[in-house]
Amino acid sequence: MPATPAWPPQSTPRLFVETELAPGPITVDGPQAHYLVSVMRTKPGDPVKLFDDRTGEWLAVATDIGKRSLTLDITERLRPRETVPDLWLCAAPLKKGRIDWMAEKACELGVARFVPVITRRTVVDKPNTDRLRSHMIEAAEQCGRTAIPEVAAPVKLATLLRDWPTNRALFFADENGGAPAAEAMRAHAGPAAILIGPEGGFDTDERDLIRAHPQAIGISLGPRILRADTAAAAAVSLWMAAAGDW
What we know:
alpha/beta; 8-stranded parallel beta sheet; 7 helices; 2 domains; Alpha/beta knot; 5-stranded mixed beta sheet
């Protein structure tokens, strides 16, 4: 007997939608419709996976296909929204391209919240948060995630520290050194955040301000000098391993 093909196939296209999902019809238009119709050549009866960052991932079937929109019939929930580790990434915005990469990796690695932090040496003081969210959505679509990190409004470093929650550890990646990151993260379980500076690093006054904060924990990411985006990915990976997510 020939094996029954898996349903839905692994090649099934996958999209994020803003609408809260439930069984029944849904209309898709704009760039998403173009992707399904013109790029993926979706035909009536073809499956599509949808997720909404609220209820999880759902299976839908294409029913009515037009030139600029198509209707999908949502038939069943495939899985609930994933549990997201309670980790924030607070990072100084970088040049376009590098901060986009950082946003993608933050999503792929499981960060719950991304906070752009404006420092004295920040190159970009008005990051495009809508673009960052779009990159995160694309990463989630490709990587099978059912949750997307929250993208916070940019905040100045002093304001971030002033309003910092008392129950959240702040791991400060200090280029001047600190406790080995993996050891410090294992020793301080619970809600946490990682603070990554700009390409030129924090200045002396900023470093002193961070180190004086009661929730701040200075950490070292090893003997090599890392670019800011690499440091962010490395620190998040270490935290996820220490927290048992990996």
